[in-house]
Specification:
single chain; alpha/beta; four-stranded parallel beta sheet; 5 helices; 31% helix
Length: 134
């Protein structure tokens, strides 16, 4: 392992949503040293959508037969070189200081675990159940 910050994103048939998280990763105040995308047995055009970010993110793309969330995350971690790993889901949109906050926290408290909560944007809620939750 080397000093640095890796983001691991696993996706299964996530072509319709993964560009959102990757777009937000290009805007981070502390960029990732590596972004590992594990395409877990997808049958859609996820790889093509991810490849569009090749010039703006330090991508590593790993394609595997479908092995489920845990297996895909383990594959992602095994593909990382950085000592700090941040997991993001393929349908999230991290705030611009997300990676900076993780990095600074771990510099102050090495060896600890940092877990964040999900803040949802109510403007994106379109279904009845989402509107009810608001």
């Amino acid at each position: 392992m080397k000093p640095g910050l890796a983001v691991v994103i696993i996706t299964y048939n996530g072509a319709h949503k993964i560009s959102n998280v990757l777009t937000e990763l290009t805007k981070q105040s502390r960029p990732a040293d590596e972004v590992v995308i594990v395409i877990d047995g997808s049958k859609d055009n996820t790889r093509e959508d991810v490849e569009r970010f090749r010039d703006s993110l330090p991508l590593k793309i790993v394609e595997t037969p479908n092995q489920g969330r845990s297996g895909a995350r383990n594959t992602g971690v095994a593909s990382c070189e950085s000592e700090l790993i941040v997991y993001l889901d393929d349908d999230t949109r991290p705030f611009k200081d997300c990676l900076k906050d993780h990095w600074e926290h771990h510099q102050l408290k090495p060896g600890c675990l940092l877990v964040g909560h999900i803040l949802e944007d109510p403007k994106l809620f379109v279904s009845d159940i989402q509107q009810y939750r608001i």
